[in-house]
Amino acid sequence: MAFAPATALADLPDAAPVRVEVDGVPVCLVRTGDAVRAVHDVCSHQRWSLADGEIVDGAVECSLHGSTFDLDTGRPRTLPAVTPVPTYAVRVTDGRVEVDVAGPTNGAAVPAH
Amino acid sequence: MTTILSDLDEGGLVARGEAGGEPSWLLDRRRAAARRFVGQAWPDSHVDEFWRSTPFDVRFDVGRAIAEATAAAEAPASVLDRVEGGGVLVRVVDGALVDVTAHPDATAAGVVAMDLGRAAVEHADLVEAHLGRLTTSGDGTGSDEDRTVSLSDAAWTGGVFIHVPDEAAVDVPLSVHVHVATPGAHLPRILAVIGRHARATLYLEHTSAPGVDALVDEVAEIVVLDGATLRLASVQDWGDGVQHLGLQKAEVHRDATVRSLAFTAGGATVRLRPEFDLVGPGAEVRPLGIYLASDGQWFDLQPFVRHIAPRASSDVLFKGALQGRSRTVFRGNVFVGRDAVGTATDENNRSLILTEGARADATPFLEIECNDITAGHGSATGQIDARHLYYLRSRGIDRDTALRLIVRGYFTDVLEEAGLPGVTEHALDVIERRIADADLSAIQVNDLGLREES
Amino acid sequence: MSQTEIPLPASEARENQERLAQDLAEYKFGWSDPEAGYAFTSGQGVSEDVVRGISARKGEPEWMLDLRLRAFRAFLRRPMPNWGGELGGIDFDNIHYYVEASEKQAGSWEELPPEILQTYEKLGIPQAERERLVAGVAAQYESTVLYHQVREDLEEQGVVFLDTDSGLREHEELFRKHFATVIPANDNKFAALNTAVWSGGSFIWIPEGVKVDIPLQAYFRINKQNMGQFERTLIIAEPGSYVHYVEGCTAPIYSSDSLHSAVVEIIVKEGARVRYTTIQNWSNNVYNLVTKRAVAERNATMEWIDGNIGSKLTMKYPAVWLTGEGAKGEVLSVAYANDGQHQDAGAKMVHAAPYTTSNILSKSISKGSGRTSYRGLVRIQEGAHHARSAVKCDALMLDEEARTDTYPYMEIDQEDATIEHEATVSRVSEDQLFYMQQRGIDEDEATAMIVRGFIEPISRELPMEYSVELNRLISIEMEGAIG
Fold it and tell me: What is the total count of domains within chain B?
């Protein structure tokens, strides 16, 4: 595990995606209550930031073509995406949010467009 | 001057031109282009159709300042060195014309090869008539809508002017060799006018010193007047650190013929626009292309043929081979206007995928406003067919040699047809070297055909 | 360079000449029913209230309303496409988004209200019904399905064939599982609009292993001026099943612009096969913007047969996402554009699994100042090894002012993919015309025969009464007498 600092919990609005960069990797953070989940911030379908979209039912919707990615598994619930986006482990300590981008927890490959 | 490209204002863009004492009409054009540049945004692949396949912000670093020529750098050998008797060689290194090697045959024929800034004074009639005409096409086909072209129109340096007079028959090749040895942004500019019924061979060579990181934004305008015959070649032989934007556009007049070869093997990113406006009836163009992409390279090749006049013909053939994690995009555009009755146009693209990880996209476009024509296009992507390999091996040729023969043979027809002294030999060398460098054991063949037959 | 060779189907020509003699020589569908008892209309324009109104009127579950609202927000946010055809003429505020006819669904032909029966007589539907070629007919009048008849053996096999509203009501769990998974609410501006205001369309579910041997059909048409049509179709074919769904429609001519923005989602599960045939004949003030997409799973086959005639502008790219190993996708597309018409159509194939194959055949014809554009995508994703794809697009330009474009995109991320693409452009040769005129066939009919020959590889795949209607329409178009 290689957690690196991402942002402060207080800076994350509830149920809205936020883009941060952790060790040069674009990450989309979503806060639900006091828990935070992280997925890679590039859609697996086309080169677009997932943080530009909205949260729907525990998934982040890519605003370009509407695929929703489950925040726990990274898997797309709808077309046009067919490949999952990497999910990353998140740790919240004393109001600090840290993300481990070294190894995706779901084993998905980083999208290469 | 250390201002990066994105931050250049009107004054910064035309500073060099003004300092060089250029004629006022030329400065006015630079200023107009500078104003255009300031009001434009860099290309966005989500918005600009012609940039759809190549993300500008990822592949091109515009955070560079225009390079200043430092100490005189040694340019590598030209392809003319392989031509018996040589030819006319114009060398541009780091934005300055460093020398011109003349050839008696060319001199006798009245060929002019000189610095573009000087030519704006000494050959004002020709330069004023043609410079920038091909980049500001008013028909919305894209040339004047691209910020990278406005940049060249405003701030080009180390320009070259070539003139082959009417009726002159020049068999020795004329070559413009652009060499980059200093990091930064480079804006080479070429204007060539091939006179009525003249005959000429023109090469545009591009090289860089090892380890140099540079952005090269090049515009070449080539006017081929009535009845002229031109053999044209552009050779992209850059080192690994170069990002190249090249608009190499020819305007082909009545009954003129152009056979061209765009050879792309070097550079980290090359976006090439070999374009042809067929403005006179009976114009004929044969745009050929060869590309060799290796690990890490990205080539976006966009031949564009516009049939504006009637009875013109065009036949595009681009062939490429890819290995490693490379990407090529073939974007062939053919536009046939409503007055282009009797047009005959064909376009073909073939990409050979040698190893895993390579990606070849193709989008051959046709836009046709006249029905009295013949038009077609074809595109194919695939691997080496195992049957070809099997055939050679059954004749006692080992696998590695057989693969070399197949890849070489794949390009031979294009090179033979192009018939460009010096360029052909050079291209074959590059092809051989690429194959030699390749991990032949990693080359994959497609055995579908074999399995279907057995 | 190649010139298309166009065969002359002589026997077909004779047959059609006979039919022509019987029929009216003018476009007989150019009329409008007098205000036939509309029960409810949402008024002109769309807003959140209109969306809520539609959902409330249908008594939908909360999740569907939520989805509609989310889609509506996406519709407002998204810009108009800057590609394809000229969309500037659409006035969103000048359209009725939901209209309901007065009568409840009738149980059989005899129970249809008289004026509606009149409509169908004019369209010649009772004839088709008498021929008993169809298993079930769902007629959509305006935005509500009025008439729906399902044959007994289909019911016995467990096949579900309902209008979409009933599908949601009676099979909510199944519906919710698949709805908006193939085309999500925010896929594109017009799919978002459809997801917000959809009404009508078909819901079809074929149980495992069941093969429906007779095509299921649907008829619908736009009637009221400024009527928007937003039907939503969802077809689910369980493993090993087969169904052929056919839709065809006509629309009367009127002066203000009309919008048809449908969405069709199809899920073809393992080893199943679905064929979806469309022959559309919209009058030339209709904007026909459709999103049609299918998912083909392991060893499944999806076939789109798409015939686009008329309309002011059609933008339609039937798509297949090949997500299972061995899946096959095919699109046969015919597009015809006359004066002032623009057909921007094609296909999309996305190979997302190994050993998948796709085939696209596009035939387009432009007459007068009509414009046809083939726009297609073949995408081979990394990992989809041993994929094969072949695309052929042929364009026939009949007149001097005609225009045609070909925009094929090939994005290939897998080294062993075999991809082929070929396109030709041609026109009717003087020789062919002369030959036929020598045989007493006038120029218009000769051209019609040539056009029929040109599209024959596709028209032969159509159910007979559709290929007859298509041939008839071609004759009418060649004579240039469109009402």
Answer: 1
What Å distances lie between residue B404 and B324, B396, B435, B440, CA to CA? 17, 14, 6, 9
Min distance B381 CA to chain C CA atoms (Å): 5
Query: Where residue C469 falls among pLDDT bands split at 50, 70, 90?
Result: confident
> Chain B interface residues facing chain A, Cβ-Cβ under 8 Å?
45, 55
Calculate the CA B226 to chain-centre distance. Answer: 23
Q: Please report residues of B whose CB lies closer than 8 A to that of A26.
A: none
- Tens of pLDDT, residues B155-178: 999 999 999 999 999 999 999 999
The answer to whether position B101 is within a domain reads yes
Amino acid, res. C75: F
The Cα–Cα gap between C13 and C8 comes to 8
CB contact under 8 Å between B376 and C421, yes or no, is no
Percent of residues in chain A assigned helix, strand, coil, to nearest 5: 5, 45, 50
What ipTM describes this predicted complex?
A: 0.94
**Residue of C63, C72, C181, C186 to mutate when probing chain A, most A C-beta within 10 A:** C186
Instruction: Give the closest of B49, B53, B376 to C424, CB-based.
Output: B376
Residues from chain A contacting residue B54 (CB–CB below 8 Å): none
- The dihedral built from the CA positions of residue B379, B334, B427 and B52, taken in this order, carries a sign that is negative
DSSP label at residue C44:
B
Closest CA to C357 of C384, C394, C317: C384
Asked whether the beta carbons of A40 and A71 are under 8 A apart, the reply is: no
Residue B242 located in a structural domain: yes
Does position C209 have pLDDT exceeding 50, yes or no?
yes
**Between chains, do B368 and C397 touch, taking CB under 8 Å as contact?**
yes
Which chain A positions have a beta carbon within 8 Å of B361's beta carbon? none
pTM assigned to the model: 0.85
How far is the C-alpha of C470 from the C-alpha of C332, rounded, in Å?
15
Nearest to B179 by CA among B275, B272, B70: B70
- pLDDT value at residue B452: 57
Q: How confident is the model at residue C377 (pLDDT cuts 50, 70, 90)?
A: very high
Question: Residue B190's domain spans which residues?
Answer: 5-384
Cα separation, C225 vs B107, in Å, equals 76
3-state secondary structure of B127: helix
- Cβ distance of C410 and B362 shorter than 8 Å: yes
Within 8 A by CB and 6+ apart from A58, the residues are A32, A70, A71, A72
Return the higher-pLDDT residue of C452 and C144.
C452
Inter-chain CB proximity C321 and A79 less than 8 Å: yes
Residues C465, C468, C470, C473, CA torsion sign: negative
**pLDDT tens per residue, range A37-57:** 999 999 999 999 999 999 999
| Residues from chain A contacting residue C352 (CB–CB below 8 Å) | 82-83
Rounded to an integer, the average pLDDT of B242-263 is 97
Secondary structure tally for chain C: helices H, strands E: 12, 24
Quote the mean pLDDT of chain C. Answer: 79
Cα distance between residue C309 and residue C337, in whole Å: 7
Q: Which of A23-32, B352-361, B371-380 has the highest mean pLDDT?
A: A23-32
What sign has the CA pseudo-torsion C53, C58, C60, C65?
Answer: negative
Of C70, C182, C352, the CB nearest to A56: C70
3-class state of residue B283 by DSSP: coil
Q: What is the pLDDT of residues C211-250, one digit of tens each?
A: 998 788 765 333 333 334 888 999 999 999 999 998 875 3
Rounded to whole angstroms, the Cα distance separating C405 from C396 reads 11
Phi, psi of B152 (to 5 degrees): -65, -45
Measured between CA atoms, how close is B322 to chain C, in angstroms? Answer: 9
Distance CA B258, CA C340 (A): 38
Domains of chain A, CATH where assigned: 3-100 (2.102.10.10)
Nearest chain C Cα to B313, which residue? C1
